[in-house]
Amino acid sequence: MTGANSRSSTAGYADAAEALVEQYESVTFAEVHREALELFPERPSAVLDIGAGSGRDAAAPAALGHAVVAVEPTAELRERGRVIHAARPVEWLDDELPELRAVRALGRRFDLVLLTAVWMHLDAGERAAGMETLGRVTAPGGLVVLTLRHGPVPAGRRMFDVSVDETVGLARGQGLSAVHVGGRADLHGRSGVRWSTVGLRRAD
Questions:
Q1: Are 77 and 53 in contact (CB under 8 A)?
Q2: Are 74 and 17 within 8 A, CB to CB?
Q3: 119, 165 Cβ separation under 8 angstroms
Q4: What is the dihedral sign for C-alpha 48, 49, 50, 52?
Q5: Eight-state DSSP code of residue 68
Q6: CATH number given to 17-202
Q7: What is the SS3 assignment for 109?
Q8: Cα-flanking dihedrals φ and ψ of residue 112, to 5°?
Q9: CA-CA distance, 155 to 138, in Å (whole number)?
Q10: Beta sheet of 67-71, edge-to-edge order
Q11: How many CB atoms lie within 10 A of CB 82?
């Protein structure tokens, strides 16, 4: 799989924001994360949603009493998310991997870190640096859950081949161990698209 011509990891998202928000909101948090939900913290916890898009995955844990920070670098998506989920106490930040400068400036560590359809936008060097960042912002005993997209690249997007083995290997070097690996079909029925879910636990 080759990336789009643009070097930006968010290429194509601003122009398609309206359609993307409709797509994201057409499936539920529970549907997207069904196979890993039993690993998610039940007690009120600190949650970081990286690449939050429309805010679907940030709003759901916020509704359950978790303290949620949503990171979204595309302004058009971030502002729509603020409006759609205004009733939920979500803290929105303009930030992105691999550095997460704004998140790290908060000085917090998170019990649950979500990266839904994010990792494949980073090239190899960015993935290595990004995993180091994830290790820094995840609390001891905390969980990182990534969904990895496999399949054809939409026009105008920047995506790369990502594998479970590479992801688990990078995580191991940052003190994050795989506690779940699974797969599912694409919830939107897109031809040739499938997903892997990787759950990583930071050592206590």
A1: yes
A2: yes
A3: no
A4: negative
A5: E
A6: 3.40.50.150
A7: coil
A8: -140, 125
A9: 34
A10: 90-93, 67-71, 46-50, 110-116, 138-150, 194-202, 176-185
A11: 14
Which residue ranges make up each domain of the chain?
17-202
Cis peptide leading into 154, omega within 30 of 0?
A: no
Contact, 80 vs 17, CB < 8 A?
yes
Nearest to 120 by CA among 158, 173, 76: 158
Contacts 24+ apart (CB under 8 A), 65-73: 66/41, 66/112, 67/91, 69/93, 69/103, 69/106, 69/108, 69/110, 71/95, 71/96, 71/100, 71/102, 71/103, 73/10
pTM of the full predicted structure? 0.89
Q: At what angle do helices 75-84 and 17-25 cross, to 10 degrees?
A: 40
| Average pLDDT for 42-48 | 97
Both tokens assigned to 88? 């939920």
For the segment 51-94, what is each residue's pLDDT rounded down to a tens digit? Answer: 999 999 999 999 999 999 999 998 999 999 999 999 999 999 99
pLDDT at 9: 56
Using CA atoms, how far apart are residues 178 and 197, in angstroms rounded to an integer? 11
Dihedral (CA of 77, 80, 85, 87) sign: positive
- Arithmetic mean of pLDDT over the chain: 91
Backbone angles phi, psi at 129, to 5 degrees: -65, -40
**Residue 38: is it exposed, middle or buried by C-beta count within 10 angstroms (0-12/13-18/19+)?**
exposed
Instruction: Return the minimum-mean-pLDDT range out of 26-40, 56-70, 88-102.
Output: 26-40
SS3 state of residue 185? strand
